[in-house]
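Incident log, structure service

09:12 report received: a user says their structure output differs between two submissions of the same chain.
09:20 pulled the input from the user's history:
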Amino acid sequence: MGLKRLDNSLTKELQTLANEGRAKNPERIITGYIPATGSLGPRYTLKGENREFLRMNTNSYLNLANHPEIIAAADAATHACGVGPGAVRFIDGTYTYHVELEERIARFTEKPAAKIFNSAYTANCGLALAIGNTTTHWIGDQLNHNSIIRAMRIAGVPRENKGIYPHNDMKGLEKCLHEIRDGITRVVVIFDGIFSMRGDYAPIDEIIAITRQHEKNFSDGIITVVDDSHGIGAYGDSGRGTPEFSGASPDIIIGTFGKAFGVNGGFIAASPTVIEAVRQKSDTYIYTNPLSVADCSAATASINICDSDEGLTLLNNLKERTAQFRNGLAGLGLESIPGPHPVVPLMVRDTEKTQALVKRLFDSGILVVGLTFPVVPKGDESIRFQINSGHTEADINYALQILATA
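09:34 re-ran on a clean worker, output below:
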């Protein structure tokens, strides 16, 4: 009775994942945060380990999660309104903190309106539900994030209404536009701003230039959408992400507060009409409780810091440490994918060597992510290093020293 037969079946499925090398490792449990001391940046402690660790696998690019002003903002909002909203947005679950965050992220992204979600994942799904219909054709980069792929499936986009172009291949994008079937009234071209496993970026200026040449062919035009979760706050001269870096802004920007901003949640920034359509039609917005007021107040405080002299200082240190690490890899004769983003892949190109190097780094007190076959194709095995502004010159030198001896 109960789950016995299901458990037996799932056990076989889980074993298959393990046999194929696709099973996730047991989750490490962080037990503490140790602030920066002397020449060293922050360290973390793990359950079952008697040493401190340097994290080079965190998305918190500006190292803001422990900023005292952000913690104080979350604390004050919690004391004012409680720990949970108590309802969805439509049933009096909207607080001033939600509205203030939406207004603040709209200004930061330089869009007229925005709507916040529990994550960028649910934001992508919500956008697809809001702007898609039976005569919408979707085109995406081959390496788009899982949330974009899932969004199209959740929205029920049929195969004939989808096109995929090779990664950052603008001729491939052109080909997809030429292959759109008759009867399509609306085209959505959607792509990551920063491709999180590679650290390279979408050429938004080229994408917009190409789509403008074709938009007259569709009554509702061509809508360009970027998921800039790994770019917003951490990229560009003022941290406004891949649109700023590439010198062109798409029609819609999706992003997260959970990476550079160091908090939680996601957002869509667009025109007021698109945002109202999202509010009325997006299941992932309508049928779930919103972010807590603590998350909202903390995210607003984080954006304010990013949009200040302190934020520019953090961003500049991030750029300097990223350049230091990239130059250090080159000096060691190690291969990476070029680019200024703090996601820095070390191309190892062998599964066993990648696993051995990840273990060597762990034993030396450094946390990284290894990507091996069959998660990536044979020959593309790599280690993803992520630099953040909490890293110091000494931290980067230590990581390079371990790589040199390995």
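09:41 both user submissions now match this output. Likely a transient worker issue. Closing.
09:42 reviewer note: The chain has two domains: 25-55+309-405, 68-306. The two ends are 53 Å apart (CA to CA).
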